[in-house]
Amino acid sequence: MIGFLIAMLSGALMSIQGVFNTNVTKSSSIWVAAGFVQITAFVTCVIMWIIDGRPEIAGIWGVNPKISLLGGVIGAFITFTVIKSMSSLGVAKAEITIVVTQIAVAYIIELFGLFGSKKSDFSWMKLLGIAVAIAGVVIFSLCGNKE
């Protein structure tokens, strides 16, 4: 149950962050906004690291696979793509598209055991669920055009 609550909090925070970041670009630029997000995230992480008792930093170099160290680079592009999609599609349409894409890609990663994740068996029901979610995005997008 706690995992679902944390996931819901994560989704809510991502939506709020996307709106905030999109607003920041109105006064600067998309890369300035993305950079500011990454810098403030770094400062927050340093503060939380100090509060958490300063666990060993060198452990980062023991990460396998090494490609996992690209999370920050991906994070910069996530910030960019969220801002661009929200500014062009609107908050709700962008978020529903982002979330459904996350589900589909996560299932592919899990299905093939990519990037060191645990491999899962194929499920027609999961595929059907993704198809229903994609249909939901299409319906949501079509209904959103009638203002």
The profile of the biggest β sheet is: none
Radius of gyration based on Cα positions:
18 Å
Distance between the termini: 39 Å
Strand content: under 5%
Oligomer: single chain
Mean pLDDT comes to 91
Number of E strands: 0
- The secondary-structure element order is HHHHH
User: How many alpha or pi helices?
Assistant: 5
Question: Any overview of this molecule?
Answer:
The longest helix has 24 residues. It is built from five helices and no strands. The chain folds into two domains: 89 residues, no CATH class; 58 residues. The protein is mostly helical and 147 residues long.
Features:
globular, 5 helices, 147 residues, mainly alpha, 0% strand, 2 domains
Question: How are the elements arranged and paired?
Answer:
Blueprint: H1 2-25, H2 30-51, H3 71-89, H4 91-112, H5 124-144
Helix pairs in contact: 1-2, 1-3, 2-3, 3-4, 4-5
How would you briefly describe this protein structure?
The chain has 147 residues and is mainly alpha-helical.
